[in-house]
C-alpha cells in the first residue's frame, strides 16, 4: 500500500484527494494505511468490518469522493498509477468515462483468454466494443457516478452502464505489469458468475423501472399460444368426435395456459412492487472512516464523541 500511495502522490501531487477502501482485509493492510494517515492528514481511509466485495467498496469510495474527476485503481500495482494522466487526457477529448486497456497482460494464458471471451461477449450484448471493460484503472466525470448501479458483481460493467445511460465511453491503452503483491482471486467459477451477472444487468437495464412488464408480456404470449392450441384441439373434438393422436399437443396447450397465467400474475405482482418501491436505497455496509472533512477546511481522523475512537458509519 505504501508503494501505491507514493506512486499516486508522485503522479497527482498534493492537490489530489486519495481515498483508500479497505474491504475487510485480514493482513497488515489497515495498519500500513493508518501509518500513512498519520503522515498525510489529507489522506482518507474507509474500512469495512468484513469483506463485502469490490462493488460495495467502489460504491463507498464514490459516495465520498469530492473531485470533479474520479479515478479508480487496484492496489496490486499491476496498473501503474503513472498511466492516469493518459486516461485524463483521453477524457478531455469529450468522453465521460475512459477505461484502461491492458493490451499486453502479464498474466497466465487462461485468464487472458477468458477475459477476451468475456469482453467480446459483453460487447456484443451490450452494444459497445471495449477490449478490457473490467480493468481496475478507470477515470470518470463526476456526473457519471450518479447513474451507476453498484451491487453484487456489477462493478464489472461500469462502462456498459455508462454507455446505456447515454454517456460517451472510450478506452486508453496502458502498460500492465506482473503482479508484485498478493495473489489473484480469479477463479473459473468467478468467470461463470460474471456471465450470470451480465445477463442480470442486461435485464435490469433493458426493463429499468418496469421489470414486471417482461413477465407480463411473456405470460401473455404463452397464454395466447396455449389458448390457441386448446381451441384447435376443441374444434377437432367437436367436428370429428375425438382428438385422434393429438394428446401431446393438448398437453402442450394446457401447459402453456397454466404457465402463461402464472407468469402473467407474477409480472403484475412485480409491477405492483416496483410501483411502491421505485426509490429503494441500498444499505451501505458498516464502515470505519478516517480522514473525513471536519467542516472547517481541515481533514483529519473523525472521532466518536467523547471516546477518542474512530466513529462507525
From the structure above, extract its key features.
313 residues; alpha/beta; Spore Coat Polysaccharide Biosynthesis Protein SpsA, Chain A; 2 domains; three-stranded mixed β-sheet; 10 helices; elongated; disordered C terminus
Question: Quick summary of this structure?
Answer:
The chain has helices spanning 2-12, 29-39, 54-64, 84-91, 109-126, 142-145, 158-164, 188-206, 212-240, 247-276; strands spanning 19-22, 44-48, 69-72, 97-102, 138-141, 169-174, 287-290, 292-293, 299-300.
Reported by name, the CATH topology of the largest domain is Spore Coat Polysaccharide Biosynthesis Protein SpsA, Chain A
Number of strands: 9
The CATH homologous superfamily of the largest domain is termed Spore Coat Polysaccharide Biosynthesis Protein SpsA, Chain A
Low-confidence stretches: 294-313
What's the level 1 CATH class of the largest domain? Alpha Beta
Global shape: elongated
What is the N-to-C succession of helices and strands?
Answer: HEHEHEHEHEHHEHHHEEE
Q: Which structural class matches the secondary elements? A: alpha/beta
Q: Major sheet: order of its strands?
A: 3-5-4-6
Q: Could you describe the largest sheet, including whether it forms a barrel?
A: 4 strands, mixed
Q: On the 0-100 scale, what is the average pLDDT?
A: 79
Count of folded domains:
2
What is the CA–CA distance across the termini? 24 Å
Could you say what the CATH architecture of the largest domain is?
A: Alpha-Beta Complex
Q: Over the alpha carbons, how many angstroms does the gyration radius reach?
A: 26 Å
Q: Helical stretch count?
A: 10
Kindly state the percentage of residues in helix.
Answer: 40-55%
Strand content: 5-15%
Amino acid at each position: 500500500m505504501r508503494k501505491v500511495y507514493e506512486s499516486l502522490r508522485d503522479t497527482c501531487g498534493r492537490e489530489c484527494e486519495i481515498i483508500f477502501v479497505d474491504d475487510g482485509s485480514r493482513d497488515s493492510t489497515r495498519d500500513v494505511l493508518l501509518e500513512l494517515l498519520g503522515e498525510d492528514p489529507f489522506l482518507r481511509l474507509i474500512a469495512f468490518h468484513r469483506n463485502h466485495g469490490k462493488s460495495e467498496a467502489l460504491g463507498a469510495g464514490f459516495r465520498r469522493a469530492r473531485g470533479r474527476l474520479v479515478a479508480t485503481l487496484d492496489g496490486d500495482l499491476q496498473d501503474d498509477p503513472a498511466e492516469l494522466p493518459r486516461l485524463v487526457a483521453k477524457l478531455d477529448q469529450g468522453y465521460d468515462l475512459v477505461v484502461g486497456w491492458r493490451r499486453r497482460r502479464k498474466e497466465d494464458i487462461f485468464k487472458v483468454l477468458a477475459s477476451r471471451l468475456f469482453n467480446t461477449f459483453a460487447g456484443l450484448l451490450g452494444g459497445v466494443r471495449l477490449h478490457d471493460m473490467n480493468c481496475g484503472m478507470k477515470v470518470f466525470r463526476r456526473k457519471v457516478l450518479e447513474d451507476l448501479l453498484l451491487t453484487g458483481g456489477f462493478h464489472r460493467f461500469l462502462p456498459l452502464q455508462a454507455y446505456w445511460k447515454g454517456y460517451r465511453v472510450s478506452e486508453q491503452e496502458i502498460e500492465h505489469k506482473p503482479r508484485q503483491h498478493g495473489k489473484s482471486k480469479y477463479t473459473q467459477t468467478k468467470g461463470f458468475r460474471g456471465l450470470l451477472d451480465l445477463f442480470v444487468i442486461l435485464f435490469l437495464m433493458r426493463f429499468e423501472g418496469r421489470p414486471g412488464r417482461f413477465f407480463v408480456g411473456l405470460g401473455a404470449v404463452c397464454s395466447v399460444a396455449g389458448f390457441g392450441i386448446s381451441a384447435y384441439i376443441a374444434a377437432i373434438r367437436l367436428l370429428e368426435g375425438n382428438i385422434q393422436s393429438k394428446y401431446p399437443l393438448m398437453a402442450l396447450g394446457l401447459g402453456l395456459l397454466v404457465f402463461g397465467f402464472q407468469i402473467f400474475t407474477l409480472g403484475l405482482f412485480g409491477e405492483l412492487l416496483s410501483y411502491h418501491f421505485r426509490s429503494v436505497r441500498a444499505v451501505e455496509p458498516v464502515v470505519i472512516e478516517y480522514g473525513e472533512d471536519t467542516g472547517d477546511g481541515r481533514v483529519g481522523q473523525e472521532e466518536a464523541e467523547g471516546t477518542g475512537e474512530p466513529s462507525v458509519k
